[in-house]
Amino acid sequence: MTPIAATTFVWVFILIPLLIIWALTIVDIVRRDMSGSHKAAWVLLVLLLPVVGTIIYVVMRKPTATEIRQSQEASADLGRQWPGSARRPPRR
């Protein structure tokens, strides 16, 4: 592999996706319903430690009530679409 091809590979498949995830994390922090000091602390952490801060935020982030409701509705819809995927009672 030539040096130019290797550099292109790194940019396309590693750095650009990381930049997108990092930017989406900052947008999520800013749009989230939390106090200004909490937002500032999270943004500061993500800006100073981009990879580690983003991972910590995503792991510690609690879903909102709307996200929980949407997830439950999606699961219920999936069960209606695929009858075999619905939970079955345990065998005895």
Can you walk through the features of this model?
Helices cover 76% and strands 0% of the residues. It has a domain at 3-61. The model has no long low-confidence stretch (mean pLDDT 86). It has 92 residues and is mainly alpha-helical. The protein is flat. It has helices at 3-31, 36-48, 50-60, 65-81. It starts with a helix and ends in an 11-residue tail after the last helix.
Low-confidence stretches: none
Please summarize the sheet with the most strands.
none
| Helix/strand order, N-terminal first | HHHH
- Total of helices: 4
The percent range for strand residues is under 5%
Averaged pLDDT, please?
Answer: 86
Helicity range of the residues? over 70%
- Form type: flat
Distance between the termini: 59 Å
Number of strands: 0
Structural class: mainly alpha
Taking all Cα atoms into account, the compactness measure Rg is 20 Å
